[in-house]
Amino acid sequence: MLELTKLSKIYDDQSAVTDVSLRIEPGEFVTMLGPSGCGKTTLLRMLAGLVQPSSGSIVLEGRDITLLPPYKRDLNMVFQQYALFPHLTVEDNILFGLRMKKVPAEEQRKRLLQVVELTRLTGLERRKPHQLSGGQQQRVAVARAIVNRPKVLLLDEPLAALDLQLRKNLQHELKQLQKRLGITFIYVTHDQEEAMTLSDRIVVMNGGVCEQVGAPRDIYAHPASLFVASFIGENNTLQEQGRTYAVRPDKVKLVPLRDKPHPEGHRTGMIEDMADTGSLLKLYVRPDGGGPNLLVYRYGDEVQGWRTGQKVAYGWASRDEVVLAR
Ligand SMILES: Nc1ncnc2c1ncn2[C@@H]1O[C@H](COP(=O)(O)OP(=O)(O)O)[C@@H](O)[C@H]1O
Ligand SMILES: [Mg+2]
């Protein structure tokens, strides 16, 4: 449905985005994930028509839109800052675009009712933005975008300014909304947990380059690079005999040193530190053989009985070693 081919943006002599190629299916929820400065916003703004690509192309449903102005694209953007008009009511904010496009008044009413209900803003239509909570303002921003019935909705860190609990609620709402509307969502975040929760597919970006594309579970289980292995969830990365590989903290088997039998390929070390997060215990094991500390997770009944300073034997099954290319 949407095809990006070798899309690049160079500012002055600095590359912000380099050769990103991607095919997005109708109704898909795709997330661009990466640290601050990796080019996510630039990529999204190129799709919106707000930044002109230095090279490459964007094709929407068979039509080359690379050079089209923003208002001629069937794409709408929701920004990190809600950018609502402060002097307009919720209703007027939502209808602003339709009025500009001179959509008939009856059609405006109909669509307003629909999106107000979808975004759970019923009863708040006459309020001004400053009379709304952060979460409500963000819903208005989403309502304002979907009222235009775009084929694709572009969302640039729309929840970044909200506190954790509200962010989790709105994540769930956005996902439900996307499924109901069937609109393609292209979402940007630096938060890997948010990306894992929301997405059909994740595009992991680093330094303007696309490092890996895949379903959340795939990317988690089979990171293609050292960057992806350490950016998506917590991981142990090991370099041994010219080989680089990763082992997830929940795959590490751990026993007190005196216990027998020891785990497969066992090594020894000492628990240097522990962190109890409630649902899981994180143990930091200093290997006797030197090298970085190893992170180990224990859940459920297995969180009991560990103490710092304790000597342990540990290991993992060779099938849980994920070999990394770089
Ligand atoms: N208008 C601009 N002029 C020059 N450099 C820019 C401009 N916009 C972004 N950049 C640079 O491009 C890189 C990517 O920025 P951005 O796309 O905003 O990253 P992200 O959204 O992932 O944080 C950064 O190094 C940033 O400084
Ligand atoms: Mg950004």
Automatic annotation (TrEMBL):
The keyword Nucleotide-binding applies. Residues 2-232 form the ABC transporter domain. Keywords: ATP-binding, Nucleotide-binding, Transport. Coiled coil: none annotated. Pfam families: ABC_tran (PF00005), TOBE_2 (PF08402). InterPro entries: AAA+_ATPase (IPR003593), ABC_SmlMolc_Importer (IPR050093), ABC_transporter-like_ATP-bd (IPR003439), ABC_transporter-like_CS (IPR017871), Transp-assoc_OB_typ2 (IPR013611). It comes from the Bacteria. GO terms for molecular function: ATP binding. This is Spermidine/putrescine import ATP-binding protein PotA. The gene is potA_1.
